[in-house]
Amino acid sequence: MRTFLDRLYLAAGWISAFTILAIAVLISAQIFLNFATRVFGLPLPSTIPSYADFSGFMLAAATFLAMPYTFRTGGHIKVSLVTARLPVRVRLVAEVIALFAATALTAFAVYYIWVLVAESIHFGDVSNGTIPIPLWIPQTAMGIGMTLLCISVIHSLIETLLRGEPVIAASEEA
């Protein structure tokens, strides 16, 4: 199960990376269109419709999809300056308490993101841009990312309890 979950977190990280690449391609295409239209007078459209909306939605997706992989690899900010000075047993207790709190917070966020998705579907919410995008599409990417983050926190909590030591090193320790 661990290998499957780690591969799932890695896949979400790769999807996030490709989403960032897609943002770069979209923005670059917009810059090229502006340049080609103004400098060379080419008969091209001067703007990609709703490119800013698409970029924003992709950025939200990339952010949320990157969170589980970043968490599991110790990339998130951690207060290791304090915990490194604690005795080993106290450090373990602090880690378990932090993981329980993170589980509660991420589970809360997961629930309400999926409620938001359901409401957007129910009410037919769309973006205000030139191209109306159903809002449940970018919200679903957020929900998937947050759900995977919650699973990764629970995964880390269970591993920490079974091993009797923290399983995620702070980024400067990795």
From TrEMBL:
<feature type="transmembrane region" description="Helical">
    <location>
        <begin position="135"/>
        <end position="158"/>
    </location>
</feature>
<feature type="domain" description="Tripartite ATP-independent periplasmic transporters DctQ component">
    <location>
        <begin position="31"/>
        <end position="161"/>
    </location>
</feature>
<dbReference type="GO" id="GO:0015740">
    <property type="term" value="P:C4-dicarboxylate transport"/>
</dbReference>
<feature type="transmembrane region" description="Helical">
    <location>
        <begin position="51"/>
        <end position="71"/>
    </location>
</feature>
<keyword id="KW-1003">Cell membrane</keyword>
<comment type="function">
    <text>Part of the tripartite ATP-independent periplasmic (TRAP) transport system.</text>
</comment>
<dbReference type="InterPro" id="IPR007387">
    <property type="entry name" value="TRAP_DctQ"/>
</dbReference>
<comment type="similarity">
    <text>Belongs to the TRAP transporter small permease family.</text>
</comment>
<keyword id="KW-0472">Membrane</keyword>
<protein>
    <recommendedName>
        <fullName>TRAP transporter small permease protein</fullName>
    </recommendedName>
</protein>
<dbReference type="InterPro" id="IPR055348">
    <property type="entry name" value="DctQ"/>
</dbReference>
<keyword id="KW-1133">Transmembrane helix</keyword>
<keyword id="KW-0997">Cell inner membrane</keyword>
<feature type="transmembrane region" description="Helical">
    <location>
        <begin position="92"/>
        <end position="115"/>
    </location>
</feature>
<comment type="subunit">
    <text>The complex comprises the extracytoplasmic solute receptor protein and the two transmembrane proteins.</text>
</comment>
<keyword id="KW-0812">Transmembrane</keyword>
<keyword id="KW-0813">Transport</keyword>
<dbReference type="Pfam" id="PF04290">
    <property type="entry name" value="DctQ"/>
</dbReference>
<dbReference type="GO" id="GO:0005886">
    <property type="term" value="C:plasma membrane"/>
</dbReference>
<dbReference type="GO" id="GO:0022857">
    <property type="term" value="F:transmembrane transporter activity"/>
</dbReference>
<feature type="transmembrane region" description="Helical">
    <location>
        <begin position="7"/>
        <end position="31"/>
    </location>
</feature>
